[in-house]
Backbone:
């Protein structure tokens, strides 16, 4: 499996979260045997996503365990002026502190789960079709200079060509490139700063020479195009 070094953390996350299909997961496992950096990234991802593991059911703490913990605590010195319940209060304070720490940990875990599972909704979605009206791809524009391109058809791309993604923010601005696709694969692109996407904004895929259009404008044949709609 070939991949850019900069994509290693993302591949590790997708592998740990089970987002890869069986073939891709097998390729990652084979690559791990030869790639220490990938091994380390996957180990780091597993540690980071550990709070999301719901395979363990919560267990209550038995009184016997509390007694063993209390017996392991160092004995407090007794002074003549000390009240008889001083040690008991100390244990209760220790229990309270332990429960407080546990509650704080649970709150942090819930916050982490929320952060990891929260999804950013796209501002507009464009379904791209070819000249025959067949769906070829879907573009989701998040309005934060990022766009997701999901290919739904197989494109024949020669080795000296590449698929380039475009949008038309306005007639005055003209077509703007959102980026290039690596091979014939869906991707999340980081494009230039553009105005907030709007309904009926044009998106299209063109076949350009390797490295992208030399003019900064679409020059190759249009593979698919479509107009954006706002999700309801």
Residues:
């Amino acid at each position: 499996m070939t991949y850019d070094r900069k994509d290693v953390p993302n591949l590790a996350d997708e592998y740990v979260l089970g987002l890869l299909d069986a073939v891709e997961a097998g390729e990652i496992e084979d690559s791990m045997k030869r790639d220490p950096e990938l091994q380390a990234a996957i180990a780091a991802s597993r540690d980071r996503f550990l709070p999301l593991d719901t395979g363990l059911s919560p267990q209550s703490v038995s009184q016997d365990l509390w007694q063993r913990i209390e017996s392991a605590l160092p004995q407090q010195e007794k002074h003549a002026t000390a009240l008889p319940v001083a040690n008991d209060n100390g244990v209760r304070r220790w229990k309270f502190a332990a429960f407080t720490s546990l509650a704080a940990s649970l709150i942090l875990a819930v916050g982490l789960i929320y952060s990891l599972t929260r999804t950013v909704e796209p501002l507009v979605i464009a379904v791209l079709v070819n000249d025959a009206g067949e769906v070829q791809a879907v573009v989701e524009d998040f309005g934060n200079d990022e766009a997701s391109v999901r290919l739904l058809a197989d494109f024949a791309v020669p080795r000296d060509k590449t698929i380039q993604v475009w949008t038309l923010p306005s007639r005055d601005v003209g077509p703007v490139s959102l980026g290039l696709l690596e091979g014939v694969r869906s991707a999340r692109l980081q494009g230039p700063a553009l105005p907030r996407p709007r309904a009926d904004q044009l998106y299209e895929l063109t076949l350009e020479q390797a490295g992208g259009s030399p003019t900064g404008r679409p020059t190759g044949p249009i593979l698919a195009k479509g107009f954006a709609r706002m999700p309801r």
Remarks:
- The radius of gyration is 28 Å.
- Residues 127 and 138 are 5 Å apart (CA to CA).
- Residues 82-89, 114-118 have pLDDT under 50 and may be disordered.
